[in-house]
Design goal:
heterodimer, A: mainly beta, Deoxyuridine 5'-Triphosphate Nucleotidohydrolase, Chain A, four-stranded antiparallel sheet, three-stranded antiparallel sheet, 2 helices, 12 strands, about 5% helix, B: mainly beta, two-stranded antiparallel ribbon, about 45% strand
């Protein structure tokens, strides 16, 4: 079951959903619109190796925006801090940004219950697109869980800006080495 | 409703969810992390109807995917459910590397059970290792009566290219 916009407002008021800052005007029928922060991350490497930390640079989006070329990939973040210990958030693009050929996540829409922080956008442009800080770029919906809840305690908790991948941590305890 | 990690564990015990092999450490609050299998299909030609792939074994030291090229692979695990619908997606850790795990076809049909084919596209060149944790699958409650899946793909265990051209030519 997906929450309606009205239900999202109620649950924000009861502190069962965190959206900070929260502006009622951004509520849609089944979601809340998220805006783009002012910082982007671009990896500085030829080939990403998930076993290693990848070097990257941080870029501030200038006042007149920043053009992503077709095929370019950068990380951004929602200005809003979001999370819930009661519902499961899913991230979606806004149809307006998708119509410009922009992906806001790369097949990873699911946010763990109990995860709080600004969410990292995985921005992949299929056509040239100009990004502006503060633009409404994505939306978050909330879904009812089934079963006992164990809250997220993962490596991206309490993010305050775009966070590069920490997948190298997954290899530390990896069992396939033994196989 | 989406199943919590605890519920996924319970339903594995009852047999309503199949994940083989199942490693409890790979449970998330709302999903299960799946691993990459050992084979990759690399596109080499479009013959006018079909996309042709050659199959390779992913070496232990990894295989570098070229950016913006499509590859097929499969999950290491057999994944399925007689009771729940599934959504097979990437993980944020891999999404942050620009790795797509499917091409907008995340929905897994209730009653299908197999090693899922992954449609992999890398936004940036990336090295993949056999058996690495690469994506996640979530389970969703159904509303209505479940009818058995009768599709072409639900029981296949290798990276399977599209059967659409064969269906169009009525060979399937």
């Amino acid at each position: 079951m997906i929450l309606t916009g009205k239900k999202i407002i109620e649950e924000v008021q009861k502190n069962r959903i965190e959206i900070l800052p929260f502006d009622k005007k951004r509520i849609t029928t089944n979601s809340y619109d998220l805006s783009l922060g002012d910082t982007l991350i671009r990896y500085k490497t030829g080939v990403i190796d998930p076993k290693q930390k990848t070097p990257y640079e941080e870029i501030k989006i200038p006042a007149d925006g920043l053009v992503l070329q077709a095929g370019e990939f950068v990380l951004g973040n929602s200005k809003e801090r979001i999370g819930s210990d009661f519902y499961v958030p899913l991230i979606h693009g806004k149809s307006g940004t998708a119509r410009m050929g922009l992906f806001v996540h790369v097949t990873a829409d699911l946010i763990d219950i109990g995860s709080h922080g600004v969410t990292t956008f995985q921005l992949y442009a299929t056509l040239p697109v100009r990004l502006h800080a503060g633009m409404l770029i994505a939306q978050v919906s909330f879904w009812v869980p089934f079963g006992n809840i164990v809250l997220y305690k993962g490596k991206y908790q309490n993010s305050t800006g775009p966070r590069p991948s920490m997948t190298y941590k997954d290899f530390k305890y990896d069992i396939f080495k033994k196989n | 409703m989406i199943l919590t990690g605890n519920k996924i564990k319970e339903e594995i015990k009852t047999g309503n969810i199949i994940i083989k092999p199942f490693i409890p450490d790979q449970i998330n609050p709302n999903s299960y992390n799946y691993r990459l299998g050992s084979k990759l299909k690399v596109f080499y030609k479009f013959d006018g109807n079909k996309t042709l792939f050659k199959e390779i074994k992913i070496p232990k030291e990894g295989y570098i995917l070229e950016a913006r090229k499509m590859y097929l692979a499969n999950t290491k695990e057999v994944i399925g459910s007689s009771k729940y619908a599934m959504s097979l997606i990437g993980r944020s850790s891999m999404g942050r590397c620009g790795l797509f795990l499917q091409c907008s076809a995340n929905l897994g049909h209730t009653t299908s059970e197999h090693r899922w084919t992954l449609e992999i596209v890398a936004a940036l060149p990336i090295r993949l290792y056999p058996g690495m944790i690469i994506g996640q699958v979530s389970f969703w409650r159904n509303f209505g009566t479940v009818k058995k899946y009768r599709g072409q793909y639900g029981f296949l265990n290798h990276p399977q290219e599209s059967l659409v051209p064969l269906i169009q030519q009525k060979k399937l």
